[in-house]
Amino acid sequence: MSLYRDTGVVLRVQKLGEADRIVTLLTRRYGKVRAVAKGVRRTRSRWGARLEPFNHVDVQCYTGRSLDVITQAQTLDAFAPGVVADYGAYSCGCAILETADRLVSEEGEPSLRVYLLLVGAVRALADRTRDPSLVLDAFLLRAMSHAGWAPSLSECARCAAPGPHRAFTVAGGGAVCPRCRPPGSVYPATETFGLLQALLHGDWDVADGSVQVVRREASGLVAAHLQWHLERQLRSLPLVERQMRERPGAGPDLADPVVTDH
Predict the structure, then answer these.
(1) Secondary structure of the chain: what % helix, strand, coil (to 5)?
(2) Which of 8, 48, 117, 227 lies in disulfide reach of 27, CB 3.0 to 4.6 Å?
(3) Could you give the domains of the chain?
(4) Which tens digit of pLDDT belongs to each residue from 165-204?
(5) Closest-CA residue to 131 (of 208, 192, 206)
(6) Residues 235-243, mean pLDDT to the nearest whole number
(7) In 243-260, which positions are buried (b, 16+ CB within 10 angstroms) versus exposed (e)?
(8) Hey, is 140 helix, strand or coil?
(9) Which residue from 214, 206, 203 is spatially nearest to 250, judged by alpha carbons?
(10) Counting beta carbons within 10 angstroms of the beta carbon of residue 203, is it exposed (0 to 12), middle (13 to 18) or buried (19 or more)?
């Protein structure tokens, strides 16, 4: 029996039998870990509530034949109550957890940068100091950058000609110059490119000063770019988009850019 200890964020939980759960965590040293937490669904469990999605925990596990087993869990940051209490933060948080789960596909593969990005994003959602949609898009852009999928914003994605460029193509990798522009490219507002740059590089003064229409257009581009590279749709993103549509004063629906080169 091999014991190990690590810190991690709970990504998701699944029922197992009548009293147990399978807990998936993204940890600092061991990457994604799936482990059984025995007896945590019983009402008398002393530490079951610690292993809820969004919480940042310190866990001790031992290596099992098919799944590891959690023997101890201590709360480092109880992010779950602050995130779950607000629908906007919760829907964006679910998309963040699902993206982290998809990006780190192999269990046991170290992924320190994604772990640090995840902790920072969930902390920002729990503190409610920023617009949840901005936190989500910043996480997605930076996580894609770590995976090598970041959209090109300041130069042509095909020939590397310096920008700024007006056209954007998801399949082509981002901004493209007039010579490389393929049919079906979209033409986001100049402010949208500026917001994407700000979110990627952490310029929160620019991001916080953006208007809702620009944020919606940027969110549409980020979501399309991520799902193109993942080659599948995230189940949680439609909930985020619905929450954005219902927000008072959100302006016209620009989740998909409206100016297209046919």
Answers:
(1) 40, 20, 40
(2) 8
(3) 3-80 (2.40.50.140), 130-246 (no CATH)
(4) 999 999 889 999 999 999 888 999 999 999 999 999 999 9
(5) 208
(6) 75
(7) bbeeeeeeeeebbebeee
(8) helix
(9) 214
(10) middle
d(CA 45, CA 95): 29
Highest mean pLDDT among 27-36, 103-112, 235-244: 27-36
What pLDDT is stored for residue 255 in this prediction? 41
pLDDT, the chain, mean: 87
Q: Are 251 and 102 in contact (CB under 8 A)?
A: no
Contact call for residues 16 and 69 (beta carbons, < 8 A) = no
Comparing C-alpha atoms, which of 73, 76, 74, 92 is closest to residue 84?
92
Output the pTM of the full model: 0.87
CA distances to 31, 157, 169, 180, 261 from 176, in Å: 35, 6, 7, 6, 12
The DSSP call for residue 181 is: P
| Residues sharing a CB contact under 8 Å with residue 124, sequence separation 6 or more, in sequence order | 130, 135
Q: Where are the beta strands (DSSP E) in 141-208?
A: 167-169, 174-176
Cβ distance 7 to 25 under 8 Å?
no
- How many whole angstroms separate alpha carbon 50 and alpha carbon 74? 7
Q: How confident is the model at residue 254 (pLDDT cuts 50, 70, 90)?
A: very low
3-state secondary structure of 187: coil
Name the residue with tokens 């290596």. 63
